[in-house]
Amino acid sequence: MMGLVEPKVKRSGGQSGLGRGDKLRRMRRTWRLVAISLFLGALFFGALAGPRLLALNSQTREGLRLYTELIQKSKEMYGSEVSYRDLVYASIQGMLRTLDPHTNFLSPEAYGSMRDRQKESFYGLGILVGVRDGKLTVITPIAGGPADKLGMRAGDVIYRIEGEPTETMTLEDAVRKLKGPRDTTVNITVVRRGYPEPFDLAITRDQVAQETVQYSYMLTEEVGYLMIREFQRSTGREVAESLAELKKLGMKSLIVDLRNNGGGLLDQAIEVADQFVPAGSKIVETRGRLSNADTVYYSSGKYEELGVPVVVIVSGGTASAAEILSGAIQDHDVGLILGEPTWGKGLVQTVYTLPYGSGMALTTAKYHTPSGRLIQRDYSSYWDYYTKYDPNADPSSNEDNGLPAYQTDLGRKVYGGGGITPDERSEPTLLPVFIQFLRGRAAFLKFSVDYGNRHEIDSPDWQPPPEILAEFKKWLVDEELAEVDELDEAFAEAEVRDQGTVQIHYEIINTAFGVAAGHKVLAATDNQIQEAFELFPEAADLLATRQALESAKESSGQVAGN
């Protein structure tokens, strides 16, 4: 930030002669300067001053004096203890909230976490962890990673990290403690089912790739499946490698799963879209208040044409960069969109570095798809925006619901200003309440660990035997997770029996062979994935029409793309 100077405190050599009162006054003065610096930083960027300093007129100076006095008075007179930092950060967030839902101040911790997520790799233990039944649990160790080499297993509970109990940590705090510099050691205490006592492991951190392509495999001999979790530094490369491998395996059709993909980096969304749309095609356009915010991005043509029918699955949690990819595929008629209307996050955030390790994601433009439709939903009411409340919406209809209409390359009607509306609406099947109850207590995971200790699971094609539900019900009673009468009543429903078997099957395969093999089990009963199969003929017709049109243009000497 130009013109902002980090406050410096004079230090004397040796023992300080300052009393406690002097130190407190010095701390107050320091935080006053911090408050002014951060407030000015947000003010400068909020006014889009760029590299130029804003002249402080008398009204601005009066406002800053009022602001610092307000901070000071709140700190001194508030009925409970409150820190200067909390007051300053909250006031900045309150100011930015008046702009739009996605302009956001990033504390040093949040800014550092964001930068870590954008890296292609980090140094850690090589494990996927989550909270199961309130405990920090290993979902799966990454093959060949530091934890895997020491024998950590799916289902292991990390009870302590460097002697500190994990039950009081958030998942983010625990992951932060597990990461660290390369070749450093982290000491953890592990609780493993079947072991009478916890045991300690000292694991040396090593490089761990942050893969954003969560799954890539063949669902059938001809249908490939690709799930992109988010868009970060390595996503374009990962997708290119995955598509090349799927083609080698005989892929004739492709499902791209973007459900709950919250977005990420714009350049990576463009890089991925480049692998789907025709050469020279518009991928996305940004439009803003300042002229330098207006940019059109086109496909480079450096990738070989995919040339297979594509169905993209989206959800209400699909946002930002994932909507850019979905919109480009839909507008250029190279694939069909299945699922629920996406979130509608079409505001471009430019991330600026602020003093003291903090940052700000400032909205500088809006995203428009190739056909010109705005991705961003209306946010005049924050409540309606975050709850997605729309009294006029009909979730079973593809009608416009009052949104402006646009046309794809082949003349199909699409709508703007409300996220990406799917070509075919489909809602996910919800799990029965009792199955959710058991999942919340990690019952399926714990049972799978015990079952794997008693039985040999020698192939990813293993199928649950008919008696496994009876064994599971007895295990639930022995573990005091449910009563016999309760189980008899719940499992009398066919849906509970079917989903119970699927969840057991998934956890056993996941524990034995990893998350990709486990996910393939779930995919077989995922209604949206199965509905995607039914759309392949229509997607193939769309692709053939598109290719015929391009061939006709080439033969007449016209240039494709828009």
Structure description:
The protein has 4 domains: 20-98; 121-208, PDZ domain (Pdz3 Domain, Roll); 213-425, 2-enoyl-CoA Hydratase, Chain A, domain 1 (Alpha-Beta Complex); 433-523, no CATH class. It is 39% helix and 19% strand. The protein has helices at residues 20-46, 58-77, 84-97, 108-118, 146-149, 171-178, 235-248, 266-273, 321-331, 382-387, 433-440, 443-454, 468-478, 484-490, 494-513, 515-523, 527-555; strands at residues 104-106, 121-124, 127-132, 135-141, 157-161, 164-165, 185-191, 199-204, 206-209, 213-218, 223-228, 253-257, 282-287, 295-298, 310-314, 336-339, 347-353, 359-368, 405-407, 413-415, 424-425. It has a 6-stranded mixed beta sheet with strand order 10-11-12-15-16-21, sandwiched between helices. Helix 7 links the parallel strand 11 (223-228) and strand 12. Helix 1 crosses helix 2 (58-77) and helix 12 (443-454) crosses helix 15. It is globular, with a radius of gyration of 27 Å. Residues 1-20 and 44-54 have low confidence and may be disordered.
